[in-house]
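Side project, low priority. Logging it here so it doesn't get lost.
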Amino acid sequence: MVTCGEECLRQICPRCAPPEDQERVVDVIMGRTLADIGENEDTLDELLITLPKCRHVFTVETLDGICAMSDYYTQRNDGGWLDLKTPVNDTATGERKAPPVCPTCRAAITSPRYGRVFKSTDLDILERNIISRMSAQVETVRDLMDKVPKSELEAKLVATASSIKADVVNAATGASVRKAYLKIQKERLDDKAELPLSPTTLEPGNTELFLVSPNAADAWSKAVKPLTQLYVRATKIAATRSPHTKAWEASWSYLVEEEMKNALADPAKAPRNLHQYAMQTARRKVGQPQPRADKRFVVEAFWITIQVRLILVDMAGSWLELAGKNKDYGPLQSQMWAAFTSFILRGCRRDANVALKIAEDSETRRQMTTSLLWLMRIDLEQHRLDYKLAQESGTVKDQRGKLADKASEGGRKLDKDILRIVQEHRRVLPNDAQIWIRENFMDAALAIRQEWHKLEKSIRSEAYYEAVSLDEKMNVVKALNFLRWRNGTGTMPGMR
């Protein structure tokens, strides 16, 4: 039966509602009942909505307040809704917003008028589920890394490198293929995909990239298999993209393209910075904040891959030193092994920069600072390797001055970088100035600075240089303590 223009099964109204419904409060703000509502009024405090889930009825004004419509739409001075607004899913106290519910029975509010509201909170719940899953995956990989018997692996490598007989590589073959290998290596390093380098790039037996003796490559791969397996797991985490992230990016890309087309169709009215305008307008029109939970754990997975590779670089350096004393391991094979080691380190730099870009796009300042710290570490490790290679090749005497000057320059550059990074971090997160910066950045950065000084002094004085492991200082992933998120709610540490 229809008397007010709406199906009774869809909308309860004052005209035909039973007596018990007439006495129910429908205007929570003023405390008015259904019987108090005028039938022919069209203001928000008189219009009614019956909630589909529970059939309780309230004024539009009441439900607009419960659903915080002003967080999702811009409002005119007369109270009408004007345009979309990107919602913020955190409350003023930093807690996550709960889905809007009926004030009478707590059933979910799913009326079409509030579609953006409940869909936004549903997406937020999905984000938290992604956080929990990816957090567990990262925790598992880090626990497995802690259990890797590094001393046993090193002992196995020592025994193998000291006795292995490498296949002979003649000078002509080495020279002819080196340029081809370097070209392919550069293509891998120049890849713009936001993914870590493929696990195949850690295999010295990869004949597309390296000319390492097959028996040496096989022995190495077997010895370091526990580490390369961890690398594979970390790369899978880094490749994770949630479905709604993909949907958001597809919608945003489409809207950017549409804005560009519209502007080019009328050049006289096109804004000065067209691409930036198109991106900002598209972001607003998508109507939802960009999902970022998966990106944040992607960055952490990148750090794990870098940590694994730095361990491999250290072991590869030891292999090179021991193999150089092995009469069955020729000098050209040593050069090929040095090229393999150098490529791993260059891959670390490439992926640290990718992690930094993802952190910048996600506007996570702590992850930006930590990614920059990894780049500082990689710079030092690169010069350590250069010095070791000069020693093993017998050219250190000719290069000593240049190597020492470069170490001095590296230390000075680090000092400037530390000052810049701390200033940039404090501008965004001033509360981090005392504790977080010191524990998660400065301690490690100063340890790296000390190693630059030691390395320079050792090179100039021709003294023995004993490299100190920075792994403990660089264990910043645990220090950030992302994993607390699994045990509660609230804003994730480091996600600002």
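Brief comment: The beta strands are 25-27, 32-33, 48-50, 57-59, 73-75, 81-84.
Revisit when time allows.
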